[in-house]
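Extended Data, panel c. Modelled sequence:
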Amino acid sequence: MTSQLLDRLALYFSGESTRQGLLARAALQARSSADAELTRKLADSLEADIRADGSVSSATLPTVWRVHQLRDLGHGPGDPSIVGLMGWVMALQDRPGAFGQGCDKERHHQRACEHYVQGFFSPAPPGVRLAPVTFPNGKVFRAEPAARFSLSCLALRAALRTDFAERPAVHRHTRSLSALATGWTSWNGFFGPDTIVSGMHALALAGPAHRTVVATLVGLVAAHQDASGTWPNTDLFHALDALMATGLPEAQAAVRRAEPALAARQRADGSFGVSAQQERALIGLRALLWSAE
């Protein structure tokens, strides 16, 4: 089954002049002679619409995602474009509208208020509705707190992939997130499944100091995988992407158990639907390749 799924994906990505196409062909060890030049052109295009202030359209999600895109295309962690983008993103830390600001009895009990949460990025001012927001992997966050929390985790992942990783402000966010995660023992508690997955993905990049917490979260996610290979109340590709980031054996086993779910969703052209089509196909490809190891 894996071979057939991969064959469809290889064909799907064979002629794609996109970041996902480049990454897919590299993963399949099927790079074309034109891919080096394509990489340069794509990176130039992505840099071209970065504003003088370091943002993309003065919007948080496109700016954060641009860091990930350029890093994927080979830009170094201290490349001038990366530094400019991250300078804009870093200015959002602890700004009004960041997850955790304010306090009430329930949030204080959950340690999810301003007395415990520090360093989170504000994706939008408090009075601006952010949700629903669709992430690059196709996951839609419809609840406002979950959207703000998960976008901050995506920004933290960006910071951890750059020369900003050792900044004290980034460490504050990482420590705060790790402390929150130690209380995630329920799959449908105060923090829902998709927010747990977002937090796990960010902590997976945070280094050895947080590996114990990450391993516990992988165990929690794995324990709630159902017989079909999916997760209740969780986006399949959001979960697979995060599990792969951990690199842990138990995560690999969970990804392997999700293969039937991928098979059930794959179209004849190799993709997995119309939402974030190429990004989900890339996640599916990477999941299948990791499963086959």
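Strands lie at 133-134, 140-141. This feature is highlighted in the accompanying rendering.
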